[in-house]
Amino acid sequence: MHAAVHDSVSVVFEPDLLCSYLRERDIEASRFDSSRTDEYDLVVSFHPDETFFDVPWVHGVRAGYDEFPVERYAEEGVTFTNSTGIHGTTIGETVAGMMLSFARRLHVYRDHQGRGEWAREPYEAPFTLDGERLCVVGLGTLGQGIARRAAGLGMEVVGVRRSTDPVPGVDRVYHTEDLHDAIADARFVALAVPLTEATEGLFGPEEFDGMREDAYLLNVARGGVVEQDALVSALESGALAGAGLDVFDPEPLPESSPLWGMEEVIVTPHVGAMTNRYHADVGDLVVENVERTEREEELVNRIV
Ligand code: NAD
């Protein structure tokens, strides 16, 4: 089995880190070279590339695969696997951090620090997460990672999914049809759904109007799940208290966006899942699937 690591993975880790990690686990691995595709059994990549159609198996290093031409892979007999399942801890901690910052006002004090300013927030501004309600929309790896950490912080956690089967750590599960009921009483709403035809623009003016005025929106899914102009309007009008945003449409967020300048908005540059062991988390998935291939078993995270 020869795995090629495409340069595009450098968005999240140094390609050589994964090559070494795989070699240490007895998998032949090298940097991808488009003139050698006939030698590869597998290419590991962040972005798709036309040359991948010559390789039998493509592994995407992200959970979202909206960018990959999976229908064409299916037509041309290329296997595609993704990296869902590895981001529950990172994203869970990122969302917990954003909520803690809003409640304990850390983002405001950090801004003050930059100006060398010793200034207190008004008495009514700080609150505790304990007892506050979080609504998590999408209860897969990300959603459950967020829910678990929120429950550990003493929050009341509700969720939205396409079935109402119970989920550990989630006090109540609403069906997607009841999204508006689920978000109505929440102090925080976290988005953790993939970007699909059904979720594109899922949050727009109607949803923001239906949320509490002291509510915070947390988007760690994809920018396109939110109508960004409507979010800006909701924040400007006071229909929402604030937002923690890791993903945007478009990315990078243009310098001209009003979101940059809003005190009650935390902007992170699509790094919510970053960790210094990302290459190892992806590597473990690849090793697992290489072993499954050798045992002629079904691959994990197989999309096509
Ligand atoms: P996952 O497949 O484990 O979970 C997604 C869940 O969303 C599934 O349970 C699915 O049933 C549910 N879902 C799909 N459509 C829905 C809808 N209309 N309403 C409610 N639930 C719906 O995937 P994951 O690993 O949790 O990742 C989810 C998405 O988050 C990815 O597709 C990706 O776009 C995004 N993501 C972002 C980052 C980041 O860096 N910010 C990192 C990882 C994933």
From TrEMBL:
Recite the UniProt keywords alphabetically. NAD, Oxidoreductase
Q: What is its EC number?
A: 1.1.1.-
Q: Where is the D-isomer specific 2-hydroxyacid dehydrogenase NAD-binding domain?
A: 97-272
Q: A single Gene Ontology molecular function, please?
A: oxidoreductase activity
InterPro entries, from UniProt? D-isomer_DH_CS, D-isomer_DH_NAD-bd, Dhydh_Halo, NAD(P)-bd_dom_sf
**Which branch of life, at top level?**
Archaea
Output the PANTHER family linked to this UniProt entry.
2-HACID_DH_C DOMAIN-CONTAINING PROTEIN (PTHR43333), D-ISOMER SPECIFIC 2-HYDROXYACID DEHYDROGENASE NAD-BINDING DOMAIN-CONTAINING PROTEIN (PTHR43333:SF1)
What is the name listed in the Swiss-Prot or TrEMBL entry for this protein?
D-2-hydroxyacid dehydrogenase
Specify the species. Halomarina ordinaria
Native organism taxonomy: Archaea, Methanobacteriati, Methanobacteriota, Stenosarchaea group, Halobacteria
Q: Which gene encodes it?
A: ddh
